[in-house]
Amino acid sequence: MTLFSPGAPGAAPLASMAAPAIGPMRAVHRAAAELRRGAPVLLEGSAPLVVLAAETVGERGLAEFAELTEGTPVLLVAPVRAAAILHRPVPPDPAVALELPGPLLTVPSVQALADPTLPQERPSAPTPAAAPEAAPAALMLVKLSRLLPAVLAAPARPDAARTLARLGLLSVPAADAAAYPGAGVAGLTRVTEALVPLDDANETRIVAFRTDDGGVEHLAIVLGDPHSLEAPLVRLHSECFTGDLLGSLRCDCGAQLRGAIRRMAQEHAGVLLYLAQEGRGIGLVNKLRAYALQDRGLDTLDANRALGWGADERSFMVAAMMLEALGLHRVRLLTNNPHKIAALAACGIAVAGRVPHAFAPNGVNDRYLATKARRFGHLLD
After folding, report:
1. All structural domains of the chain with their residue ranges
2. Per-residue pLDDT of the chain (381 residues; tens, 9 = 90+)
């Protein structure tokens, strides 16, 4: 049995279904991989910029960075992280540049400036500077690499292209990196599907999806025949290694995952979209860093922001595209998060109703749930 249909007549088209050229997105992913391994990357544009991820900086990468650049390096960070470093408010610009004096241009110092979970002793203080034109693209590139959003940057030397070739390093247009959020989910295709009977739902299939850029896979867990219902039950569930797999008490994700499957099994149909967006889109390693900051007193939202991430970095466009591919255009959403309803509606999926999906605090996640209600607007009553 195939789970795909060509789409209902008159269904609202998704605004971003057109796939980008694969070449540019492949180059962006290769550049992100270079940053993960501690190598500098050249961002091409009217003012070429050499960037190096602060989290993975090492002596070799720092030496290559120096060969490629001129002028005083700056550290590009999010405004909240800059405010913590400077101990004062800063304007809410897309990226803040902090000029690094010589004593701070060392591997331990740069890594500590990027990571608030490391010891914060510094020989001197950075000073604010003008952010380069490609600063937002630089932060987007390092976010794509799932590293801390902090980037060492400096203008490229006039002969940087030759040096880049000699060192075997990469360059990518800054515009391609900046355009990734919309383009990165385009061209979603089905990879494979298989029957996977579950304890609570014997008639279950899992459908795997992948985008054209070769990024992470997203899964649709399909129970029964959702097309038999006018508006089947659907849940958008972001993966949570600690909650879903280990049964962590710090969140309610595991309870929501298993509870959603049981609820759909009662209706003999439903779809759970298992989205590869761990930690509200910041990745597992950064989620663990956020946990460390929560143990020091910050709540979920402030911990993410202290690391330089937004309160919620997820995009639900991919979920809408998966539903479109499954031929589902009208659903009931199993959620406590109004943002998910608005996101699906903006992408042309009709939400016929919201089905509450709240679970009682367990004594460990009480503050977490209270923060979701108070600061994220989740409907937990």
Report:
1. 22-182, 186-277+314-375
2. 333 333 333 333 343 333 444 467 788 889 999 999 999 999 999 999 999 999 999 999 999 999 999 999 999 999 989 998 998 899 889 899 999 988 889 999 999 999 999 988 777 889 999 999 999 999 999 998 889 999 999 999 999 989 999 999 999 999 998 887 655 566 688 899 999 999 888 899 999 998 766 568 999 999 999 999 999 999 999 999 999 999 999 999 999 999 999 999 999 999 999 999 999 999 999 999 999 999 999 999 999 999 999 889 998 999 999 999 999 999 999 999 999 999 999 999 999 999 999 899 999 999 999 998 888 889 887
Query: Looking at 280, 289, 314, 332, which residue is catalytic?
Result: 314
Residue 114 backbone phi and psi in degrees, to 5:
-80, -30
- Cβ proximity of 112 and 29 under 8 Å: no
- Helix, strand, coil proportions of the chain in percent (round to 5)? 40, 20, 40
How many residues does the structure list for the chain? 381
Q: Which of 159, 312, 354, 375 is catalytic?
A: 312
CATH number of this structure's domain 22-182: 3.90.870.10
Q: Is 176 part of the annotated catalytic residue set? A: no
Cα(292)–Cα(286) distance, rounded to whole angstroms?
10
Query: What pTM does this model have?
Result: 0.86
Chain mean position to CA 93: 20
Q: What is the spatial distance between Cα 175 and Cα 156, in angstroms, rounded to a whole number?
A: 17
Same CATH topology for 22-182 and 186-277+314-375?
Answer: no
- Which residues, 6 or more positions from 228, have their beta carbon under 8 angstroms from its beta carbon? 269
Distance (Å, whole) CA 161 – CA 63 = 16
CA dihedral 47, 48, 52, 58 (to 10 degrees): -120
**What is the distance of C-alpha 202 from the center of its chain?**
32
Mark whether 312 is an active-site residue: yes
Task: Classify domain 186-277+314-375 at the CATH superfamily level.
Answer: GTP cyclohydrolase II (3.40.50.10990)
DSSP tag of 233: E
